[in-house]
Amino acid sequence: TNIILLGPPGAGKGTQARKLVEERGMVQLSTGDMLREAKTSGTEMGRRVAEVMDRGQLVTDEIVIGLIEEKLNTVQASGFIFDGFPRTLAQADALGELLAKNGQTLDAVIEMRVDDAALVARITGRYTCGNCGEVYHDETKPTKVAGVCDVCGSHDMKRRADDNEDSLKTRLMEYYKKTSPLIGYYYHARKLFTVDGLAEIDAVAAAVAAILDGKA
Ligand code: AP5
Ligand code: ZN
């Protein structure tokens, strides 16, 4: 089963993707994570994307499609979770072609619906384990022991450079302008499902699971 998690910054895509990896053994393909990795690699591409990302703008289609293509050609999985990709109509077309080329299909696009007011609180309270990637929040999902990852015990907690109100404003504008048209695109392709992203993390997970089980 291959699915897309679609939603604005802070909707909870990464949080739900990690649960699916844990519970169903699916493979998460997050272009945001791949780009953040490229950022720290010290390569020319890394330097170019860092600036764009930190401002909150979208990286070029060419770069992200290339990253996804490489993964699809090298990683074997019973199911992929596309997290933060596609984000433009051109990326959606490219994904359709790449999957078809590998004899695969796209089974569901899950739109996580949240309102803007909630996103500021989600984004400004977020921190992540630098070792295992677990995602936390100051209020809604703090670590059990302050500064120590529940999952792996690491003390390496990180906040993202683009998790400030200014960059978030740009990220939201980019989302409404370039990414939200994908909702109509996948609706017409009869692949769209919507969940209430404002519900508690476990309730959202249950709604996502119900969609996947209906597809299995
Ligand atoms: P990316 O890394 O994809 O970031 P994003 O889309 O802005 O999404 P986030 O990671 O911010 O949010 P999320 O939905 O995963 O929420 P999370 O689960 O962490 O992209 C970053 C940048 O990279 C882009 O701006 C762009 O520059 C570039 N980029 C990436 N992909 C690209 C592409 N395809 N094309 C071009 N450019 C690309 O949750 C957020 C917080 O809320 C956490 O603290 C979490 O604990 C908490 N939370 C989650 N769910 C709940 C809940 N149900 N209730 C309460 N709290 C919750
Ligand atoms: Zn950890």
From TrEMBL:
Its EC number is 2.7.4.3. Coiled coil: none annotated. It is found in: Cytoplasm. InterPro entries: Adenyl_kin_sub, Adenylat/UMP-CMP_kin, Adenylat_kinase_CS, Adenylate_kinase_lid-dom, P-loop_NTPase. CDD domains: ADK. Pathway: Purine metabolism; AMP biosynthesis via salvage pathway; AMP from ADP: step 1/1. AMP binds at residues 31, 36, 57-59, 84-87, 91, 160, 171. One of its GO terms (biological process) is AMP salvage. It catalyses: AMP + ATP = 2 ADP. SUPFAM superfamilies: P-loop containing nucleoside triphosphate hydrolases. Zn(2+) binds at residues 129, 132, 149, 152. Gene3D superfamilies: P-loop containing nucleotide triphosphate hydrolases (3.40.50.300). Residues 30-59 are annotated as: NMP. Keywords: ATP-binding, Cytoplasm, Kinase, Metal-binding, Nucleotide biosynthesis, Nucleotide-binding, Transferase, Zinc. It comes from the Bacteria. ATP binds at residues 10-15, 126, 135-136, 199. One of its GO terms (cellular component) is cytoplasm. Residues 126-162 form the Adenylate kinase active site lid domain. Its main location: cytoplasm. Belongs to the adenylate kinase family. Monomer. Consists of three domains, a large central CORE domain and two small peripheral domains, NMPbind and LID, which undergo movements during catalysis. The LID domain closes over the site of phosphoryl transfer upon ATP binding. Assembling and dissambling the active center during each catalytic cycle provides an effective means to prevent ATP hydrolysis. Some bacteria have evolved a zinc-coordinating structure that stabilizes the LID domain. Catalyzes the reversible transfer of the terminal phosphate group between ATP and AMP. Plays an important role in cellular energy homeostasis and in adenine nucleotide metabolism. This is Adenylate kinase.
